[in-house]
Structure formats: C-alpha cells, structure tokens
Design a protein that fits this description.
- The chain has 229 residues and is mainly beta.
- It has one domain.
- 5% of the residues lie in helices and 48% in strands.
- The protein is built from 1 helix and 17 strands.
- A hairpin with a 2-residue loop joins strand 11 and strand 12.
- The longest helix has 12 residues.
- The N terminus is likely disordered.
C-alpha cells in the first residue's frame, strides 16, 4: 500500500509525465505523415476516432484532408503537398487513480485524485513557403514569427503560441521532451534549432477548470518544419 501511494504521489508531483506522447506531422513519400508516440523512437497506435480534424493549405486555400487521409495502425498518410497543415487529436478525459491513469472523466473514475481533458494539435509548415507563418486557427497553435527559410542547425528562431487566437504567456516549450523555455508576455520565445533535418518544437499549457469531469484542460501542440541545408 505504501509503494502504491508513493507512486501516486510521484505522478501528482510530475504533471508533465502523463502527457509525454508526441503528436506530429512530417514529410512522407507523397505528402505528409501524421504520427503519435515518441518522435525518433517508439510509435504508438493512432485511434482514428480521436483524429477530429486534418487541414492543408494548398495554393492559399484551406482544404479538409481528413476524408482523403489513409489510416494504418501507427500513422496517417495525407496525400497532399501543403504550405501548412494541421491536425487535431482529441484525447478526451483522463483521471489519475491509486491504480494508475484511466481514460475516463473524474466523475466516472473510481477514487480519482485529479483529472484533465487532453487536446493535442500537430502542425507542419513548408519553411520555403511564403505561407509558413499562416495562422490556421487551431484552438492551440504555434506560429513561426522569424525567417525559418534560411535557419540552419544552431540558429535561433522565434515562435509565437496562440490560445483561441490570442497570444498566451507561460506556455512551456520543449524539444524531445526537454524544457527549453516558456513564452513571454507577447506569447513568444526563442528556440535554437538542434537538427539538420526536420525540427519539431512542442508547446504545452494547462488551464484549470472546475467541472465534474476534470480539474484542468491540457493543451499540447507541435510545430515541425524542414531545416535549411
């Protein structure tokens, strides 16, 4: 019993631990590929029913690509060449109990200690496109605000984080699950590019709520782009 309580306390004190799965878009053979899991490592199954939106900017026009996407166990193929694209994965409600984490709201989970609603967004931008800085209108979104067309490994770029279209401070910025900063009062931060291939930057934000289902909403977003050679 003491070990069980100690493990539970550890999870409570490490709120980021429960949200350690990446959700990202990257180039594929004939367009883009959407993946979930650990980028550069283990891929996890994608629940097709939780992918609620998949959009692509083509020649300045936003198009719904969810219906034309191909789903397999661990990836979603998007047969389109996008100046920018985004996807929304609605995880639903999760509760932390003495027996671990369950995908249920607090009012349905036995002995729930705390609960949250999970919303994840993935975004890809073509760094060479003049539309790379386009705001797509996702509920939680990262936008490059400096020139990424010529940014190489070791260079710094600025990104802006938006919540419901408005800049937000205090969003935690990470690369490969390593916190590297947080957004300032303008919703921006500087990030050093750490690869010569495809960079993927993540942002997370927790907003408290008081509902029977949850104590917080946890937003996560990724921004991926090809690094200049």
């Amino acid at each position: 019993m003491m070990k069980r309580c100690a493990a539970l306390l550890g999870l409570i004190l490490a709120p980021g631990l429960a949200f350690a799965h990446d959700f990202w878009l990257e180039p594929g053979n004939d367009g883009l590929i959407l993946r979930y899991g650990h980028r550069g490592g283990e891929l996890l199954a994608i629940d097709a029913g939780k992918v609620k939106a998949l959009r692509c900017i083509e020649k300045g026009i936003a198009k719904d690509r969810l219906s034309s996407a191909t789903f397999t166990a661990q990836e979603v193929s998007v047969p389109a060449h996008c100046a920018a694209a985004s996807a929304f994965y609605y995880g639903g409600f999760y509760s932390l109990t003495p027996d671990g984490e369950v995908n249920l709201p607090k009012n349905e989970a036995r002995d729930a200690v705390k609960a949250w609603e999970s919303k994840q967004f993935a975004k890809w931008v073509d760094s060479q496109s003049d539309q790379a800085g386009t705001v797509l209108g996702d509920e939680f979104e990262m936008v490059p605000v400096s020139d990424i067309a010529h940014a190489r490994e070791g260079d710094k770029v600025s990104v802006r984080v938006l919540l419901q279209g408005k800049t937000v401070s205090g969003a935690i910025i990470t690369i490969d699950h390593r916190p590297i900063g947080e957004t300032d009062s303008a919703g921006e931060t500087r990030v050093r590019i750490r690869t010569s291939d495809v960079e993927s930057i993540s942002a997370s934000l927790r907003r408290p709520v008081s509902t029977p289902e949850a104590d917080a909403v946890v937003f996560e977003a990724s921004l991926s782009f090809q690094v200049a050679k």
